[in-house]
Design goal:
four-stranded antiparallel sheet, single chain, 1 helix, mainly beta
């Protein structure tokens, strides 16, 4: 999955720029000030250990918030745990950072 500036994604379906149900957007006027921004009460946390893919309990027990995550604070292979607008947990694994953000995602069932 790839987000370009001012696009959003529904992490439950993987749909880019959905009409409703978006959980995350890439917002900002320049790449240097771009952030991943919560949508519709979804919550996120950049995890301290990116050495192994997290299990569901790891993300469920994480302290998640609606605070934006600056792109400049991210690195390739970083893991961001989340809960979606409908309460499903999952994680993003950052694959590439340039003028857009490329990532893989796993969203677990309810």
């Amino acid at each position: 999955n790839t987000l370009t500036m001012n696009q959003s994604i529904d992490l439950d379906t993987g749909e880019i720029s959905p009409q409703n149900g978006a959980d995350l957007s890439l917002s900002g006027s320049t790449t240097a000030e771009a952030s991943l921004v919560s949508q519709n009460n979804a919550k996120f946390s950049l995890m301290p250990d990116n050495s192994i893919p997290p299990e569901p309990y790891y993300c469920q027990e994480a302290v998640l918030s609606e605070d934006p995550i600056l792109i400049t604070s991210l690195a390739v292979n970083d893991i961001i745990c989340y809960s979606t607008d409908v309460g499903r947990y999952g994680y993003l694994n950052i694959v590439s950072l340039n003028s857009n953000v490329e990532f893989t995602l796993i969203t677990w069932g309810p």
